[in-house]
Automatic annotation (TrEMBL):
InterPro entries given in the database record: Lgt (IPR001640)
Record-level GO cellular component terms: plasma membrane
Domain of life: Bacteria
Protein name: Prolipoprotein diacylglyceryl transferase
Transmembrane segments: 20-39, 70-89, 101-122, 143-163, 183-206, 295-312, 358-375
Gene Ontology terms, MF aspect: phosphatidylglycerol-prolipoprotein diacylglyceryl transferase activity
Family that this chain belongs to: Belongs to the Lgt family.
Organism from which the protein derives: Pedobacter quisquiliarum
Record keywords, A-Z: Cell membrane, Membrane, Transferase, Transmembrane, Transmembrane helix
GO process annotations (BP): lipoprotein biosynthetic process
Entry annotated with the keyword Transmembrane: yes
């Protein structure tokens, strides 16, 4: 396993480069990039078909930097400098435990002040380049795909919060022992929490910008499936605990690699299992028995679903139908993987289920309802 990028580089090239990047975080970033690409392409396609329309906006140009802008830039610059300079001075600690460095109150005040001044100076200089004797209003045409930068930022913020909230609800006993640590930790993220909260934020912002909810949902279906596939690569490569149940069964095919059938996740970032002999460093644990590498199965399944959605999106004309199909695929894939995945069980009477099984069942049913609704309201949606 590769808990950090440094471990991965050492495995590939045999060199040790101390970098403060964990593998899971890198793949989360790549997942957002993949989603951004797919969202943008689909928005542009719908723009060319006349489904999504540009809007006229009026902006004031030629103004000098305001006090409010300078204060905001100064605060932002201070926070960056406060942490960045401290991290560089304490680089060994930053590499060993970036989370503690970033989330603690420790920092470098001089570095913060220097960056605050730099950001304020940059803001003033940029505004002075375009300053006019008399500021004027300019009308600009904005296309929906140009909103993607803003949408991705809000999806990331609310997606992270949702993922943390749902994960802490799923592991309530651990959360109540250390609620602050549970909320601030970078580890422990539940996909469905991120999907629900991040998706809700995107829908709200898109609607405020004139994009109807059903069209935005259709745009998001394939992109979210692609992002999920990429993100799960990070789960597998880092060994973040999203693995399956113990698998001691013989391989069904002799040609299948052992790691594709049963794996012990050595050096996993979750630091679960038994100590690896002669291992030095922070990540020196592996599972005592091999388990199903469920993140890898989800990588394959999610990418296959993305390809299907990407292929059929040209043929589906009814608003909401593509997203309904996405929900059905998503719910079915996750429900099936839960059958061999380690997870917290809830009990209602004699029925035992996981949080993901419950939500995936609701998503499948919701998707089916959306598909039926789209078909039954074909004429109504013709002008949607």
């Amino acid at each position: 396993m590769f808990p950090t990028v440094s471990h991965f580089l050492e495995y590939l090239f045999g060199i040790q480069i101390p970098l403060p990047f964990n593998t899971f975080g890198v793949f989360v970033a790549l997942a957002f990039i993949a989603g951004y690409w797919a969202f943008t392409k689909e928005m542009q396609r719908k723009e060319s078909l006349g489904i999504l329309h540009p809007r006229k906006r009026t902006y004031v140009i030629g103004k000098k930097a305001t006090t409010t802008e300078m204060v905001i830039n100064g605060i932002f610059g201070f926070l960056i400098g406060y942490k960045l300079v401290y991290a560089l001075i304490n680089y060994s600690l930053f590499v060993y435990d970036a989370q503690t460095v970033l989330l603690s109150t420790k920092g470098n005040i001089l570095g913060g002040l220097a960056f605050a001044g730099l950001f304020i100076y940059w803001d003033i200089q940029e505004k002075n380049k375009h300053k006019l004797d008399r500021p004027k209003n300019v009308e600009v045409t904005e296309y929906p795909h140009q909103l993607m930068g803003n949408l991705i930022v809000w999806a990331a913020v609310w997606g992270f919060l949702g993922a943390k909230i749902f994960d802490n609800l799923e592991h309530w006993d651990t959360f109540i022992q250390d609620p602050i640590g549970g909320l601030l930790s970078f580890s422990g993220l539940t996909f469905y929490g991120g999907l629900i909260c991040g998706g809700a934020a995107v829908i709200i912002i898109a609607r405020k910008n004139g994009i109807k909810p059903l069209h935005m949902l259709d745009v998001g279906g394939p992109g979210m499936m692609l992002a999920y596939s990429v993100g799960r690569i990070g789960c597998h490569m880092s060994g973040d605990g999203d693995w399956g149940i113990v698998n001691l069964n013989p391989k069904p095919f002799s040609w299948m690699p052992d790691w594709l059938w049963a794996y012990t996740y050595p050096n996993n970032v979750a630091m679960e299992g038994v100590k690896i002999p002669n291992c030095v460093g922070k990540f020196c644990f592996e599972l005592p028995q091999p388990v199903y590498p469920t993140p890898l199965y989800e990588v394959i399944a999610a990418f296959a679903i993305f390809l299907i959605l990407w292929q059929i999106r040209h043929k589906i004309k009814l608003p909401g139908m593509l997203f309904g199909i996405y929900l059905m695929f998503n719910g079915l894939e996750r429900f099936l993987i839960e059958l061999i995945r380690v997870n917290t069980k809830y009990h209602v009477g004699d029925i035992a289920f996981t949080q993901a099984e419950l939500i995936s069942s609701i998503l499948f049913i919701s998707g089916l309802v959306m598909v039926i609704f789209a078909i039954k309201n074909k004429e109504k949606h013709a002008n949607y």
